[in-house]
């Protein structure tokens, strides 16, 4: 059995999560789009082409592929989602140890996101 069907499943799952992330504030869009583009490149040239030329999703993927960049808008959305998740955990009474671990992971992810350039067409 080839890996093509598995990559196709991964691509569809990541695309579904990316679409949900476009509507839900706590779910990121861009990382799932990048995974979907990667998976579709290995399983379906047609779906890969559709995704990278998509009016809304294509620019996010191209910005990452060409420049290793994340737009200001995507950075703001990701940072907001991370802060909201951390705040929700605190409000739900998550233990201090778990909250501290979550804060360390969120801080690392935020540092990475903020370290990326905005790209040529910064928002």
Bin the strand percentage.
Answer: under 5%
Distance between the termini: 44 Å
Q: Please give the domain count.
A: 1
Sketch the topology as an H/E string, one letter per element.
Answer: HHHHHH
Q: Please identify the structural class as seen in this structure.
A: mainly alpha
Number of helices: 6
Which regions contain 5 or more consecutive residues with pLDDT less than 50? none
Question: Rg from C-alpha positions?
Answer: 16 Å
Overall average residue pLDDT = 88
Helical percentage = over 70%
Largest sheet: none
Shape: globular
Query: How many beta-strand segments?
Result: 0
How would you concisely characterize the structure shown here?
The protein is mainly alpha-helical. It has one domain.
What does this structure look like?
- This protein is an all-alpha fold and 123 residues long.
- It has one domain.
- 76% of the residues lie in helices and 0% in strands.
- The longest helix is centred in the N-terminal third of the chain and has 20 residues.
- It is globular.
- The N and C termini lie far apart (44 Å).
Secondary-structure map:
Blueprint lengths: L3 H20 L6 H14 L1 H8 L4 H11 L4 H20 L4 H20 L8
Helix pairs in contact: 1-2, 2-3, 2-4, 5-6
